[in-house]
Each structure stands twice: as structure tokens, then as C-alpha cells.
């Protein structure tokens, strides 16, 4: 390795070879950073993403688009750099410096697509593409159409160490899914498919880790194919001591198994810091399946029986028989209603072992004589028995010749300790999504009730929940429905791209369409499934205008991630694109500041000072907003002067975070680009 270092230094010292030396140094550092022991894979292969619709600028990296009606070839994945654009003709001059000598050619700019390598700095903005406002002053859920790696970099500016729970359902790498890496489909017979998948996942998990709070957790769904590798990768990224659980989701026999099929998927659960999580107020318990339904049925039976316990019990037992398939045995055994309308079952009050100190007389309330007692005595002490009697938790027989029983109430059994295995039929989620959209648009979506279960178990009612493999939008629906269920104010951030399904892409290409065309984009998963699904659940109205439900009292906004020029951002010419990021950093709540042409503006949770000559009225407006009951969390100050920024910070209230624009914004993405080169 020392010899390689010497050769690299010689190349770096030569002006003619300095550029290639820089590239070699990046690859050398990546190789040198490999583990000598553990999970090893090729980390240094650059990952790229095409950005259709992004205007071509001088200096951009680009691909030449395939001819319409033709499939992409190896030549279309060749990387060029734009060295000039003739604005009059729209023709760009592009260069490939990897050849000797460098090759140049001219292409219409409309035949080029901008390419971002993940080691290049990006300067993102968000453009709103619609919203649903039905939740009053509740925080907004955010749905972002973007490549998820760049979205994660963006969220490091808005939500670093602020996310409570991450749930993701990444590609399972079965070889037949057609997930995209470096602009190519990774085939099942690719010898590097596991290495590529691990590199793909590691890049995203490293960023995800920084988004989690110290008490945050991440839940990753995975199948048999990569389960063992993912467990090792997460041990490396999150550290083995932060492993929480490996949950088995038993959902029926898998059709593709030739031998023994366990029909299982898995969910790996890790803490950001298990020692911090151990002190957090998280129950790690779940509501027993069927308890709420049984309590509601019992309440109905009690009301219809006009308080007659015998009639109510008969009607309730009839309901249990007809709903047996929906209830666990642990719930179905609560099959009686007492004179107070409480659902119970009669448990044993006898001591399981001989206990002389538990042998005492228990008097029957009607005959006044001691009731029949087990030779071992009663289960509880005299003091504990007196409390049970006072709470009407003892069930007596007709007279003293029969024993007494312990009335266990169903209302006490709503919570259960979470197990590492649970069952749920996978077919229900597909039928549910078809009902939401009014037609089948997406195969094998995840189950929103399953995700809601785990979000309820691992978190709180005011959590920030992130899913950066958003797919059909299941996580967003789960969060919205959870909020409606318990009055919570959880915020979901959901990220998905607008990739078209492989079969649709083939048809679209044959029809002469390409990514970026309107016909292509409207068939992408974001436009065709995710956005209409979340809109339908929130509003209750399907894409075709038909009624699905009454809707939910939730707020949602949809965004496209855009790539901005850093000079335009730093000169405050792209404020409208950066504005949603500032709003998200302040909590995604209330009015957003989209214009600061007046020099400053103050909203419900934050303020922006763009003209430091307006500092005094800005500070006054902040104070007035807080006096009226607003909770100002952040103040964004636009200045490149350290001294003036410090002066403004000094006059801000202590609880208000001061963020300097655009230095904090630009620096965030330059740092992340430098790290992703490794």
C-alpha cells in the first residue's frame, strides 16, 4: 500500500495527471477503508441517478438518451460532461475525458439527461405539487417524489437527529424485482448482485442513522434472500449492542418454495442507542387482537339487554361464536358479562401448591357460610382477597357448596407483551389498496395495519416517522390512521421515486416514450399509486371522483425534489425552492414563508430575516408572535457576515435556534457529498 501511495503522490504532483490522480485517490481510499474481517463488499462503485426534466447546464454530467422506441444500450450509460451550450440553437458540446484523447461531440440538449453521481454535491429544493388540508392546526405529513439517497441528504438539513422511528421495506434482491442501481436493472444472475445491494443499502443506512434521535429505532423489512447479510450490515452500521429484535412475520406458504416453506418475512429492529432507549417511555407492548371489537360487542349486548346480565351474556356468546376466526383464544374465553356490564371469565382462585397461610374462610354472601375451598388454600392472601371482594372481582356460586372464582376482566387485557413472531395474511393488503384506488394498480403492497402495529409499539403519539422506500404509501396511511385512532400528532415523511414498473416501462418505450415525458411520468409509482392513494385516504375521494370514505382530519403536502444551482441559492434567488425545507425544519406546521421580499417574515413556528437592516422590526415581530401564543422554534438569518450573524443571535430568545443562510444549507450538502465519495 505504501508503494501505491508513492505512485499516487507522483501523479498528484504532475499537473497533467492531477485530475486522474484525484479519481484514483478516491478509489484507493475506499479500498483502504475496507474491513479486514466481517462483511466485505465493493463500496466504491459510484452510484448514479438520472434526473429527467432537470435543465441541462454547462458543467453537468449527462447521458445521451436512447432513440425513441429503442431500449437503452451500454452507449447510453456512457458518462459525458457538458462543456458548452449554444443557447441560440439549443445544441450542447459534450466531452468524454476518460478516452485518450478526449472525445467530443455535439448533441441537442433535449437529447441529454442530467446525471448525478452520489459523490457529487447536490443542492436540493422542494416544489409543492399539491396538498390536503383537513387537519386544522395539526402538523403536515410530507410526501416527496425523489431518489431516496438525495432525499436523505436533504433531510439531514431539516431533521438531523430528529426522527423517532424509521420503517423501510427495501428491495428484497430476489433477482426478479427489477430494482435499479447505476441506471441498470440488477439481474438475478449478476455475480455482484449481493455486493451491489449491500453497497446500495449501506449508503442509505449510514444517512438514516444520523437522522434518528438517540432514542430512535429503525425497522427494516426483509426476505430470506438478504436477511442474513442485512443483519450483518446493520450490526456494522448501528453496532451489534443496539440490536433489539428480529421479528418474524408469518403470512402463509410461499408459492416459490420447492421444499419447506416457512412463509415468513422478517423485520430487523435496531436502536440508535439502546442505552438511551432503555430509559425512554416506550411500552413495547401491543393491543391484543380482537379486544376492542369484543368490548364493543359486549357493550352493545349490554345496552340491548337493558342491563340484564344473563340476556347480555347469551347475546355476547352468540357474537363470539360467529366471530371466532377473528379472535384469539385468549380473547374468546372472556365470554360472560357481569351485573355491572363488565366482560370477564372465571379464573381459578385456588392455590396451586399447599399453603397453610392461605387457608382461611371465605364467606358466601347469601348463605353466610364458608364456601368450598381447595385443600391447598386460596391463591391470594387475606388482605389481597378483601381487595378483590371490594372490587367485585370474586364470582360466587349459587350457594356455599360450590367454590369461588376470580373474575378476570377483558378491559384489563388490552395490552400484551410483544412477541418475536406474529401472523397476518398478506392478501388483505392488496385487497385494501384495490378498494382505496378503485382498481388494482400495485402488486403486493405492505399492510398498513401491520405497520401501524409496530409504530404504536415502538413509539409515541407525537413521533416523527420516516419511510424512504415509500412504495405505494402504506406507511403514510398507517400514520394517518393511527392519529385518527388515538388523537396523535405523528408526522410522516414518506419518500418514493416515480419509477415505472418494468412491464409498463417496456410498453412505454415501445410506444416511443422516455422518462421525463408526460405519458411516462404519469405511470410512475409516485404519480400512479402513492400520491392518489394518500390523497384518497385523506380526502375520502378516489382519483375518478367516486367516494371511498369520509376522509381523515389530517394535513398532507406533496413535493418534487429539485436540483438547484448553488450560486443562485447563495444569492437568495431560489428562496421559493428552499422555503419548504425551512418550514420542515421548524416542524411542518402552520403557515409557510414563501416570500421574504419585504426583508423579513415571521410565521407560526419560525421566522426568516433576509435584510439585516430590518433586524429590529424582525425581533419585535418574533416577540409579538410569541406573546400571542405562537411557539417560535427557529430563526433563519441570511448573511455571509459572521459578526452580524452573531449580533442577531445575541438578541434572539434562548429557546430559538439560529440558522445561518445560506452557509448552513450549502455546507450541509458539501459535507455529505464528501462523505459519500467513500
UniProtKB/TrEMBL annotation:
<keyword id="KW-0808">Transferase</keyword>
<dbReference type="InterPro" id="IPR002052">
    <property type="entry name" value="DNA_methylase_N6_adenine_CS"/>
</dbReference>
<dbReference type="InterPro" id="IPR002941">
    <property type="entry name" value="DNA_methylase_N4/N6"/>
</dbReference>
<dbReference type="InterPro" id="IPR029063">
    <property type="entry name" value="SAM-dependent_MTases_sf"/>
</dbReference>
<keyword id="KW-0489">Methyltransferase</keyword>
<dbReference type="InterPro" id="IPR002295">
    <property type="entry name" value="N4/N6-MTase_EcoPI_Mod-like"/>
</dbReference>
<protein>
    <submittedName>
        <fullName>Site-specific DNA-methyltransferase</fullName>
    </submittedName>
</protein>
<dbReference type="Pfam" id="PF01555">
    <property type="entry name" value="N6_N4_Mtase"/>
</dbReference>
<keyword id="KW-0949">S-adenosyl-L-methionine</keyword>
<feature type="domain" description="DNA methylase N-4/N-6">
    <location>
        <begin position="163"/>
        <end position="485"/>
    </location>
</feature>
<comment type="similarity">
    <text>Belongs to the N(4)/N(6)-methyltransferase family.</text>
</comment>
Amino acid at each position: 500500500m505504501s508503494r501505491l501511495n508513492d505512485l499516487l503522490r507522483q501523479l498528484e504532483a504532475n499537473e497533467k495527471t492531477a485530475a486522474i490522480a484525484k479519481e484514483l485517490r478516491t478509489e484507493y481510499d475506499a479500498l483502504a477503508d475496507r474491513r479486514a474481517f466481517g462483511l466485505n463488499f465493493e463500496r466504491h462503485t459510484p452510484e448514479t441517478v438520472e434526473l429527467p426534466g432537470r435543465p441541462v447546464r454547462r458543467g453537468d454530467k449527462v447521458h445521451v438518451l436512447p432513440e425513441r422506441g429503442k431500449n437503452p444500450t451500454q452507449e447510453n450509460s456512457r458518462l459525458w460532461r457538458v462543456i458548452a451550450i449554444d443557447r441560440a440553437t439549443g445544441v450542447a458540446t459534450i466531452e468524454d475525458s476518460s478516452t485518450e484523447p478526449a472525445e467530443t461531440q455535439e448533441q441537442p440538449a433535449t437529447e441529454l439527461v442530467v446525471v448525478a453521481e452520489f459523490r457529487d454535491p447536490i443542492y436540493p429544493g422542494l416544489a409543492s405539487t399539491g396538498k390536503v388540508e383537513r387537519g386544522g392546526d395539526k402538523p403536515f405529513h410530507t410526501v416527496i417524489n425523489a431518489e431516496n439517497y438525495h432525499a436523505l441528504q436533504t433531510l439531514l438539513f431539516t431533521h438531523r437527529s430528529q426522527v423517532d422511528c424509521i420503517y423501510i421495506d427495501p428491495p428484497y434482491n430476489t433477482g426478479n424485482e427489477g430494482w435499479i442501481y447505476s441506471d441498470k436493472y440488477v439481474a438475478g444472475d449478476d455475480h455482484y448482485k449481493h455486493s451491489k445491494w449491500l453497497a446500495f443499502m449501506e449508503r442509505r443506512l449510514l444517512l438514516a442513522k444520523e437522522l434518528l434521535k438517540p432514542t430512535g429505532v429503525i425497522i427494516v423489512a426483509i426476505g430470506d434472500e438478504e436477511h442474513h447479510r442485512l443483519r450483518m450490515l446493520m450490526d456494522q452500521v448501528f453496532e451489534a449492542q443496539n440490536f433489539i429484535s428480529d421479528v418474524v412475520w408469518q403470512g402463509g406458504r410461499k408459492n416459490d418454495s420447492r421444499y419447506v416453506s416457512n412463509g415468513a418475512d422478517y423485520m430487523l429492529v435496531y436502536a440508535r442507542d439502546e442505552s438511551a432507549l432503555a430509559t425512554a417511555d416506550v411500552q413495547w407492548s401491543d393491543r391484543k387482537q380482537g379486544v376492542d371489537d369484543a368490548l364493543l360487542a359486549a357493550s352493545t349486548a349490554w345496552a340491548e339487554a337493558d342491563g340484564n346480565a344473563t340476556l347480555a351474556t347469551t347475546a355476547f356468546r352468540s357474537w363470539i361464536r360467529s366471530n371466532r376466526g377473528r379472535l384469539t383464544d385468549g380473547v374468546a374465553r372472556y365470554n360472560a358479562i357481569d351485573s355491572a356490564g363488565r366482560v370477564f371469565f372465571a379464573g381459578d382462585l385456588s392455590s396451586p401448591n399447599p399453603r397453610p397461610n392461605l387457608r382461611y374462610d371465605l364467606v358466601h354472601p347469601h348463605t353466610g357460610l364458608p364456601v368450598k375451598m381447595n385443600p391447598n388454600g386460596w391463591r391470594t392472601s387475606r388482605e389481597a382477597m378483601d381487595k378483590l371482594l371490594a372490587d367485585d372481582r370474586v364470582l360466587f356460586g349459587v350457594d356455599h357448596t360450590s367454590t369461588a372464582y376470580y373474575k378476570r376482566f377483558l378491559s384489563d387485557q388490552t395490552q400484551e407483551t410483544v412477541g418475536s413472531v406474529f401472523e397476518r395474511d398478506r392478501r388483505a393488503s392488496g385487497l385494501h389498496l384495490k378498494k382505496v384506488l378503485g382498481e388494482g394498480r400495485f402488486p403486493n403492497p405492505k399492510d398498513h395495519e401491520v405497520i401501524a402495529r409496530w409504530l404504536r409499539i415502538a413509539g409515541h403519539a407525537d413521533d416523527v416517522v420516516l419511510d424512504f422506500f415509500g412504495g405505494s404509501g402504506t406507511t403514510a396511511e398507517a400514520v394517518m390512521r393511527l392519529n385518527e385512532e388515538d388523537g396523535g400528532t405523528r408526522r410522516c415523511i414518506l419518500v418514493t421515486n416515480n419509477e415505472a414498473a418494468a412491464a409498463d416501462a417496456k410498453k412505454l418505450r415501445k410506444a416511443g416514450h422516455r422518462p421525463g415525458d408526460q405519458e411516462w411520468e404519469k405511470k410512475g409509482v409516485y404519480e400512479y399509486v402513492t400520491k392518489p392513494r394518500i390523497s384518497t385516504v385523506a380526502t375520502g375521494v378516489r382519483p375518478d371522483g367516486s367516494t371511498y370514505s369520509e376522509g381523515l382530519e389530517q394535513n398532507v403536502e406533496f413535493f418534487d425534489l429539485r436540483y438547484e444551482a448553488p450560486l443562485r441559492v447563495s444569492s437568495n434567488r431560489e428562496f421559493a425552492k428552499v422555503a419548504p425545507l425551512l418550514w420542515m425544519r421548524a416542524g411542518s406546521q402552520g403557515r409557510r414563508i414563501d416570500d421574504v421580499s419585504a426583508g423579513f417574515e415571521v410565521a407560526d413556528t419560525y421566522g426568516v430575516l433576509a435584510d439585516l437592516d430590518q433586524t429590529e422590526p424582525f425581533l419585535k415581530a418574533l416577540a409579538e408572535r410569541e406573546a400571542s401564543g405562537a411557539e417560535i422554534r427557529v430563526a433563519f438569518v441570511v448573511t455571509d457576515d459572521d459578526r452580524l450573524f452573531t449580533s442577531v443571535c445575541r438578541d434572539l430568545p434562548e429557546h430559538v435556534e439560529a440558522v445561518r443562510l445560506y452557509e448552513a444549507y450549502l455546507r450541509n450538502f458539501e459535507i455529505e457529498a464528501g462523505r459519500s465519495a467513500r
